[in-house]
Amino acid sequence: MAGTPFGRSWGDSPDRDRHGTEGSGHRAGRPRRHGADGAPPRAWQRSFRCQSGIGRSAWRADSAMARYRRFVALHEAFSQPPQVNERRLWLSGAGVSAAAAGAAFAGVLVLRGLFGFDVPAFGGHQGRAVPVAATYALCAAAAGLQATALLNVLATVAARPVRAFGWIGALAVLLLTLLPLTVRAPLDDALATAALNLVTGCLITGSVAAAGAWSMSWPPPPRAPY
């Protein structure tokens, strides 16, 4: 089989081309190729037209260990906690707390003054709108600062602090939304309080999570040695 379309057979002469002529064409004088260990080419190496891969080395233990070390280094780089810019985080948290306090204050005034709802529902009819709104605004500001402190703690102990904070914040917002529905109060007042808690809680959780993602930076992955 001197003239196969996939290259020379093993029994052919190195100086014979595919048409069987000695010393003619660009194949004349080309030495016979062997494997990496000096053994003759195997069947799968002779079955392809491209013969450049025959001399390449096979899988070696050192290459496997090098790939394993690169994988371990990449995993350790991704497992490291992020670097937190605490000044930026707390300034953002203070701004979120002020915005949440303003939203709660305005929400109580609007719901009590314009629509006539007794918000919060557990407060009853006692008290005027401004003192009740100020108290609710202080609670919202305290919640924003506590959320900022929680995210700062999670940044040092959690692999994905923003995601963990999002789950915790979603659970807290759910509880605060369902809490007014459990008190003995008119249904419309309880629903108005639940809606206000939902809006304020989503504002605090989303804004603090965005501020935390903006204030954190992860180390870059290790560069490959090639």
Automatic annotation (TrEMBL):
<protein>
    <submittedName>
        <fullName>Uncharacterized protein</fullName>
    </submittedName>
</protein>
<feature type="region of interest" description="Disordered">
    <location>
        <begin position="1"/>
        <end position="45"/>
    </location>
</feature>
<feature type="transmembrane region" description="Helical">
    <location>
        <begin position="164"/>
        <end position="183"/>
    </location>
</feature>
<feature type="transmembrane region" description="Helical">
    <location>
        <begin position="89"/>
        <end position="115"/>
    </location>
</feature>
<dbReference type="Pfam" id="PF19545">
    <property type="entry name" value="DUF6069"/>
</dbReference>
<keyword id="KW-0812">Transmembrane</keyword>
<feature type="transmembrane region" description="Helical">
    <location>
        <begin position="195"/>
        <end position="214"/>
    </location>
</feature>
<keyword id="KW-0472">Membrane</keyword>
<dbReference type="InterPro" id="IPR045713">
    <property type="entry name" value="DUF6069"/>
</dbReference>
<feature type="compositionally biased region" description="Basic and acidic residues">
    <location>
        <begin position="13"/>
        <end position="25"/>
    </location>
</feature>
<feature type="transmembrane region" description="Helical">
    <location>
        <begin position="135"/>
        <end position="157"/>
    </location>
</feature>
<keyword id="KW-1133">Transmembrane helix</keyword>
